[in-house]
What we know:
single chain; alpha/beta; 15 helices
Amino acid sequence: xxxxxxxxxxxxxxxxxxxxxxxxxxxxxxxxxxxxxxxxxxxxxxxxxxxxxxxxxxxxxxxxxxxxxxxxxxxxxxxxxxxxxxxxxxxxxxxxxxxxxxxxxxxxxxxxxxxxxxxxxxxxxxxxxxxxxxxxxxxxxxxxxxxxxxxxxxxxxxxxxxxxxxxxxxxxxxxxxxxxxxxxxxxxxxxxxxxxxxxxxxxxxxxxxxxxxxxxxxxxxxxxxxxxxxxxxxxxxxxxxxxxxxxxxxxxxxxxxxxxxxxxxxxxxxxxxxxxxxxxxxxxxxxxxxxxxxxxxxxxxxxxxxxxxxxxxxxxxxxxxxxxxxxxxxxxxxxxxxxxxxxxxxxxxxxxxxxxxxxxxxxxxxxxxxxxxxxxxxxxxxxxxxxxxxxxxxxxxxxxxxxxxxxxxxxxxxxxxxxxxxxx
Length: 424
């Protein structure tokens, strides 16, 4: 049996753990020793629900990174996003050291990572084999988040100089781009060549959609009672507020738009927030709105007529897996990338927000209302979503990912044993 450490960017939302937890659970069920590292409160709930060990944050001083969230939200690609988030050398050094501590203490045979820059660097520092589980636009071979705009502009910010300084201090070769660290010795892509296209030269394996849902998960009776007479729209905002004051990456605009456009519509709206609280500014929700902090995603997507969400990759995968169309309000360029891919497949529509003078994102409510009605009324959207769902079924998802990671771990162990026996 092998030891697997699952790591990721420790953002306080569900996107990254949703894709890693199912693989971790499969490997744990097969008898491997598995641990996850994400101390953020909301991911910790999902990890606990899956019955997995979540390692604590090491007792280290952790300086605040003076991130530029406006630049991160409008980033051309991963490289510029990391440059906006990790511009502080002190933070880079401390975050790297914390991830080295975690991996050194657990002593994994393989690190399995998704978008965790510092955990990927830590794996290289310690010489631990790395398997990455990424969406297409996170991979180094991707054309970036703004792929439809052509070539990447020159001179965009990067954190590579600081990453390379810390890497050199730990005996690791420099990289041209931070994003190059994300590609593992084994690189698995969540989705399919249709949903997450990469050039043929990319050394990746597609594993299809991965969605966390316990095998016995069901929707509450009150949810099943919805939709008997009116269509059900599932509104998922993700994290409405990342701070006490507005930030450019907030998804509160999704809730605000849904309330304004749908409060008097002949629909039932089920709002979930991924274990996040509904902001107090909304007060009492309209009578046709129903809130739950968390519901099983695939079951909910199968139950509803339409999804409205912020464009997170896991939300896109959930809807497509269920054959359910979407209207997406993408709140950052990474999510706009995902939304445009879905719209290009004919499985939904996009409503782009704009930032107002108050620092909040706003949308054209009339446009949003019209697109919700269009997607509900036009069967071609659901037909397209179901076609994509069918095409996804030939990929193995979490089971296939676990198979590939097991084989990778075995090959690494065999190579290590050969080197040891030959004294190499």
